[in-house]
Specification:
Elements (H helix, E strand, L loop, with lengths): L5 E5 L3 E3 L5 E5 L6 E9 L5 E9 L6 E2 L7 E2 L8 H4 L2 E2 L15 E9 L11 E10 L6 E7 L2 E7 L6 E8 L5 H8 L3 E6 L11 E2 H12 L4 E11 L1 H12 L3 E7 L10 E3 L2 E4 L10 E2 L5 E2 L25 E7 L7 H14 L5 E6 L16 E3 L6 E3 L4 H22 L12
Parallel strand pairs: 2-10, 13-14, 13-16, 15-18, 16-17, 17-22, 22-23
Antiparallel strand pairs: 1-3, 3-6, 4-5, 4-9, 5-7, 5-8, 9-10, 11-12, 12-14, 18-19, 20-21, 24-25
Length: 422
Amino acid sequence: MTSQVRLMLLPSARCLFDEPVHVKVAGLRSRQVVTMRARSTDERGVTFRSSASYRADGSGEIDLQRDPSLSGSYVGVEPMGLLWSMRADTLHKYFYKNKALDPHVVKISVHEEEEEEEEEEGRMLVEVINERFLLGCGVSRLPIKEGNIRGVLFTPPGEGPFPAVLDLCTFMSEKRACLLANRGFVVLAVAVISDKSANVKEMHLDYFEEAVNFLQQQPKVGSKGVGIISRSKGGDVALSLAAFVPAVKAVVWINGCSANVAIPLYYRKRHILSPLLFDTSKVIPTESGAVIGKYVVNDPLAEENKGSLIPIEKAEGRLLFVASEDDLNWDSKAYMEMMVERLKHHGKDNFETVCYPGAGHLLEPPYGPYCPSALHGLLSFPMLWGGEPRSHAAAEVHLWKKIQEFLRTHLSCDATQTKARL
C-alpha cells in the first residue's frame, strides 16, 4: 500500500448502520484515475462487492459527495454508492444482516487503475474499514420469552418516557427494530412467520395483541398506544391489528396487501378473515431464473374473496401507506389505492400515502446492499423484487426519516428525543 494516499471516512470510520459517511481520498497524482472498491461478508458467509472508477481533481483529491463515478457498479455522484451497489458474485443473494450485536463491516479500498486486465484488481493504494453498528450506545437488547411472545426487545438509554413500536418482521430480523431504538423508540421485534411455521394452517391475532399489551407494560414506555411497522405479509397483520385492537394508534404499512394473504386469521377463538389465495401458475419467468410474482395473488375485490378484505375503516389510529411503484413481488400500489378508496368511502381521513417510483419490494433501512432478487421465504424459487438500484436506495433514505417522523407524531409521548450515539 502507498502510505501517502489517504482514504478518509468522515466524521468517523465507526458509525451507525443508517448513517452516511463522507468518503474522501487525498494524496493521489493530479487527475489520476483510480478504482474504489467496497467488500463485505454477510451472516451466511456470502461476500458482496462493488467498484467504481473516479478521477482525482488537480490537487489529487476525490470527494464522493462532489465527484461522479465514471464507471463500475454505478455512475454519477452517489456519496454512498459503494455501499448500496454491493452485489454477491452469484445471483439471487439477499444480504443477511439481521443480528443486532455484530456490526456491518465494510472494507473500502483504493486501487490503481488496471487498464489491461479489467477483471483483476489493481495494486491497492490504501484501505479503511467502515464499522457500521446496528446497536447504538446504551441501547439494551433483551430476548423475550414471555407467555406466547417470542421476540427481541430494544430499549433506548435514559429514563424516557419513549413511544412504543411493534416491529412485525415477516421473518425474524433485529435490524429495523434496533435501529429504531437508537432513535428513541422502545421496539419489540417479532416474526410473523417463524422458521417452524412455514406451513402454518392458521394465524391468531391474539398472539400479536399479546405483544402489543406487553409493550404497553414496559416501564420506559410513555405512549398511550402502540405503533406498528410492517412490510409484505406483515402489512396485512398490522392492518388487522389496527382494525381490531384499539391500543394500536399508528401503523406503517410498506408494500403489503389490502387483504389477509394466504393464511386464515382468527381472533378470540373466532374466524375473522378468510385467506386471499394465489395461483403460482401466474408467475412470470425471467432469463435470470427469478420470477415475477406481481400478479400471482388473486383479486381481493372479487366477490369470492371479499371475506379476506381487512375492515380498515374500523381503525381509529393513523395509517401510513408506503408503496413502491416497481414492486414485482405483488401489486402494492394497487392495494394501497384500494384501501384509500375504501377509507374515503367510509368518510375516513386518518391516512397518508407515499409512493416511490423506481423502488422495489424490499424497502429497508438505508445504506445496505440493494437486492434485485433472492430466494422467496415461502416459495421454492427466487423472486425478482423490482426496483432500479439508485432510485431504490434514495427511497430508503427518504422513507427511513418519514417513518420516524410519522411514529413520533402519532404516538403521544413526552419523551425528549436524544440523538443516537455509538
